[in-house]
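notes to self, project folder thing:

trying the whole complex as one job this time. last attempt i did each chain seperately and stitching them together was a nightmare. two parts in total, labels are on each line so i dont mix them up again. if this works i'll redo the older ones the same way
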Amino acid sequence: ILNVEQSPQSLHVQEGDSTNFTCSFPSSNFYALHWYRWETAKSPEALFVMTLNGDEKKKGRISATLNTKEGYSYLYIKGSQPEDSATYLCAFIKAGGYQKVTFGTGTKLQVIP
Amino acid sequence: DTGVSQDPRHKITKRGQNVTFRCDPISEHNRLYWYRQTLGQGPEFLTYFQNEAQLEKSRLLSDRFSAERPKGSFSTLEIQRTEQGDSAMYLCASSLVARSGNTIYFGEGSWLTVV
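result (full assembly):
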């Protein structure tokens, strides 16, 4: 069983605040790390696909970093807006074999106007 | 629409009945996944296919669950003798196994309520 953990489990921030959360995953047999955004009543959609140690990705006010040697990724949101309210999921893809995908339990973000 | 589609979107059934969900993945995608989501949890892995081969099935699934992907295209997930604990959203997703990345695309889910 692969341990993919996300923290915090939930988070409330004021509009305009910046925030970040963590995804921890096994540091061995790394293939890729994905971040997904899951809004209520919608399906998860991909934010970032990260494959190399030291990767930094950015999309608008959201960015992510990756450290495969120590097994963590950070997701940052700068100047949070109410429309950022969602659950943010990370998924660890294991190298070798069938490239098993394991999701974390998510960080639920609520941005208060 | 060329995304992942699931049918039905909502199903209410009596305990003990059988239900079947269908998933149509993105057409060129060779990998298809089924996940389950219960309140407050992230997606919980059920099973996945590479083309028509079922590569892995979660130990969390009892024998009442079965999934097929007979021609490597659409897939069905059947739950026999449903129990109230089966009430959840069943998510289907697909991806194209490629050199790197393999972005997963999700359907909108099929909500099951067992009464």
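what i see at first glance: The CA atoms of residues 24 and 74 of chain B lie 5 Å apart.
need to look closer tmrw
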